[in-house]
Amino acid sequence: MRRFLSDPSQAHYRRAWLLLLLFTTVLLGIGIGLRDPWPADEPRFALNALEMLRTGQFWFPHRGGELYPDKPPVFMWASALSIWLTGSVRWGFLIPTTLAGIGTLLLTVDLCRRLYGRRIALMSGLALLSAFQFVLQAKTAQIDMMLTFCTTLATYGLLRHALLGPARRWWLVGWAAMGLGIITKGVGILPLTLLPAWLWLAYSRRARGRIAPITLRAALQGVAVMVACIAAWAVPMVVMATWGDDPSLAAYRDNILFKQTGQRYADSWTHLEPWYYYLVSVLPWAWMPLVLAFPWALPAWWRRLRRSDPRILLPLSSVILIVTFFSLSPGKRGVYMLPTLPLLVLALAPLLPGLVTRKRLQWLGFGLLALLGGLLLAAGILGAAGLPALTKVAERHAVSPWAWWIVIGAIAVGLLVILRPRRGLWALASWLVVFWVSWSTWGYALQDHARSPRDMMAQVRSITGADAWLAMPDFDEEFLLQSRQPSIQFGDRTPASAQFRRAFAWLQQDRSRWMFAMQRQAEDYDCIDPDQIHDLGIQNGDDWWLIPATAVDRCQGDANAAPLFVAPTTLPDHTGSAPRV
């Protein structure tokens, strides 16, 4: 890479490379600082990071004053660092995933350059940027993009050794990246799905000499490096949890090491879906528009596989095994497929020059853009005209995107007219750039007030006063993150009914206290005086009530029904050094 960037004979391609890097940085980075963290996961990780900075407790993540054992702390560390550097949650929380997305693309492009040449490398970068899920997750502050960077770095290291080696240093880098991926999110071992095809090819007579063999010594060294990376976090954590004086840390240790890994995969308790969920409900949109090329890619792959081409077999077999691996688990989320995208691009890379010349593929791109643009244009016009069904949805979510949809729908129509079906893929790619830029600016401005409770929590403070204590039974992290006054919660795993009983007892101890609760939960308690309730309206699809302590005098409280946690991010910071939300 260093020689490529410094060689004068490479000036043309160096400029193209730098333009791709600049384009990627702008496309993925635009919108940073324009919105708050949005549910489902972003407020949780921002709250973890903010609590680390406020309390100085970096080894054991907390959420609302309570230990958070669901994920290892690496992503929270990265978020805390970016928030600290920028001095603001709003400016800092998206930076780790943006950088991870840029890094993932650079690794993919560089590996394609070494395998297939500079032209195909640049095309592979554009192919990855066209993938809908890739850009979406690079603009979403969830762990999965950082995990994907780790798995892509591991894949890069292993394939540098397998296909361009032997390269012992890159072999060890790959295993180190897997270790980092494991302490980012437990499934950092996904690059091991390269090994079955690798071992088969290494001992296949037809592929002999085209792939580096795996020796027992090299395997043991790799595993040792991976374990050392994991131990750098796990050993201090286990020592502090086992021999510390806080019994809750031992529960954290057991949860993070066992329940959140093997048990979560084999006996998941959330996001339960059938085995075909990814094939039917995720991959068609997550891999779009790359899936449009499959009618031509599949026979081309088959021809190359018959020749035992390791450059195709290794990434393609890894994609298949990863999809199978997650399909076998009862718990499924669409983001689990994100690590397959760089591998899919690696498998498609040598086919890209031929694919873009296919007239029917250009027509498919034209048709997809016509469908997307037509739907958005029609929905925007009907919504602006007051179609009752669309108006009802807009009122429910407090967003009226009609003008935005009309504009990007009209742009789609304009691109279709100008570029015609013979350049359908270019029309689709151009429109996707327009979509992501408008999503990250206009779209953020439209949605932020509805998806972030910043304004609602400011209203709560204006009603209660800045010093009034606030209880949040069955809390959502976005409200706790945006709270402007001392706030408490009653345990994430505590049943809602027990939380309300504990909240009633807490409110009855001091008549200056308040409770912030979902209407659909609070209205189950007839003991609450309805005349004293402040109806705050809709936020994130639910109605919310602000209830004073004087309204629950007739309610039956129980001070032992649930634990009580004070959220440190809601307490006054007298140092003046805490980052802004």
UniProtKB/TrEMBL annotation:
**What keyword terms does UniProt attach to this protein?**
Cell membrane, Glycosyltransferase, Membrane, Transferase, Transmembrane, Transmembrane helix
Q: Where is the Glycosyltransferase RgtA/B/C/D-like domain?
A: 70-228
Query: Where does the UniProt annotation locate this protein?
Result: Cell membrane
Source species of the chain? Salinicola lusitanus
Membrane topology (UniProt): Multi-pass membrane protein
Location (main, coarse): membrane
User: What is this protein's name?
Assistant: Glycosyltransferase family 39 protein
**TM region(s), chain numbering:** 16-34, 89-108, 120-138, 170-201, 222-243, 275-300, 312-329, 335-356, 363-390, 402-419, 426-445
Query: From which lineage does this chain's organism come?
Result: Bacteria, Pseudomonadati, Pseudomonadota, Gammaproteobacteria, Oceanospirillales
UniProt entry tagged with the keyword Transmembrane: yes
